[in-house]
Fold these 2 entries.
Entry 1:
Amino acid sequence: MINKAEIEKLREEVIQCRKCPRLVAWREEVARVKRRAYRDQEYWGKPVPGFGNPEARILVVGLAPGAHGSNRTGRNFTGDASGGFLYPALYRAGFANQPTAISRDDGLMLKDVYLAAAARCVPPENKPTLEEMNNCQPYLEREMGILKPKVIVCLGRIAFERVMRIYSIRNPAWKFGHGALYQLDDVHGTCILCSYHPSRQNTQTGKLTVKMFDEILAKAKSLVEA
């Protein structure tokens, strides 16, 4: 399992990363101060590595860890409202063995899906700087190189723009929009599929509904099975 070994090596590098002093200070402060509801829990407080099947054909790219979600649990989209929306959808689509994500040892396994992020540390106000995003970009690039995904699902505009940057795509016709689909001219026939991010702001306002997101995952599945 070459992919598994390479992913594990990358995972360890991500966890040890201290490239961005502002983010190191913030993630550790959040882990130290904690939210009252989680005051008895030990926070992860480190960069959050990717998670999922190392042989996945679908790569899902989000923005960054949540302060009291992934920065607490140490696993992407685990322990916050975004994960509470995402994982049930993955389960319904047949990509997860269970609809809940509580902790790193809750038994969750993903099938044909790998979850990554444009930024690996929780940023203040959920806004990483351009320099911080650039510091993190090699990790996403390496994941893409290891997985060679057939479909990349970009959750939100920032994830989409970061993937465009990695592929050096400057086509003005390629714009972010929910459901937008683009085909790369590469040896893997990779597709880029866009979705609104499953943040509380989007899901509670109805900008992103369960039906809309289910349709994105159904599209991703049809593309890898084509």
Entry 2:
Amino acid sequence: MPQVTSAGGLSAPDAGRPPEPLLADRKVEPDVPGEGVHEPGSKDVRETGGYALQAVVRTGEGPGPPKAAEVNASAIDSVRRKTEARMAIEAGSARARFVFSGGFVVPPGTELRARIDRYGHLLLWPGEATYRIAEAGSARALLGERRLDVAPQSLADVQASEETGRRLNMRTRRVDLSTRAAKAVFELATLREAGEGGTLVCRLLLELMSASPASSVCAVDEVPVHAELRWATGGTLTFDVTSIARRLEFPSGSLNVPPASLAFVTSPPPFSPADLLVSRAELAAFRTAPVDVPTPASRDAQPPPPDSGLLLINASDELRVVWLDGVEVAWIAPGNRLALPMLLRGRYALQWRTFLGDGLDAPDTVIVPGTSEVEAGR
């Protein structure tokens, strides 16, 4: 039976030495899977195998499109599925790899890698033969704003529940936990010989709610298959594993933390002012034909509307995501703008949000050609 810690969580009796925090200015020696992580010179014969998980991250539905004959519902639904934020997870007995794609604000192919004996992650940026240190507490800023700022963390209040459920045809147990940032429910499934790979998945989810990675939630051989985070500021984020596959062996080097071929850098991730998450053709297909609608009067100090399309302006102090007709279509860094000239004339439903869903502006109906701006302080 797992032991209850002072933080109210669960801890394996043979947890070994405390993990070492990764530091942003300190490189990590090349890793060799198959070598144990708890004691120098020990071996872990299962490290080359484990489980491959596919998961999605959702922050609720955006406002749906107006009811009109020109609305192309099938095209909108197709793009909505494409832009779903997806995570491919490889979890060994003591190491894990997270690969992001779809509607994340980090570029597709961005990776985080982790070891059970270290707090924090290694960040592998696509297109670079490098790695950076994402210190414990930085995952929230990375996934929300493409930054590596370290947020204050505290031990989560963890309460194991007697309530059980089923996910992916497996029995799960429920854990309730809370921090100042959020209240959450984790559902954990037991996977044979999963080791502590599931703990690394738990740590990533804990970081999103500003909880210390020392907040023990997963026991050995447990993996989170569902988590719902309810933000103190309003809004929710859900994590759902959609498939699990046993892997007797992972590709060579896929779990190295870090691989020997990568160079260590201390520079921040590359800056980008904005990005469109869908193609121009896909966005144009949201309507089957243009429709002339009255142009609203411009407010004082508001820039004149563009001749075509939609101009998006982020005057706030945080990265914002734009949802259009219920689809996450773009993100814009603070103080930047993005033009969508391909949108056909007509009415659209728009909402400005943070990626993590902890900041939601009220939905709005915008007229194209036109401008939508999120203001400072919102």
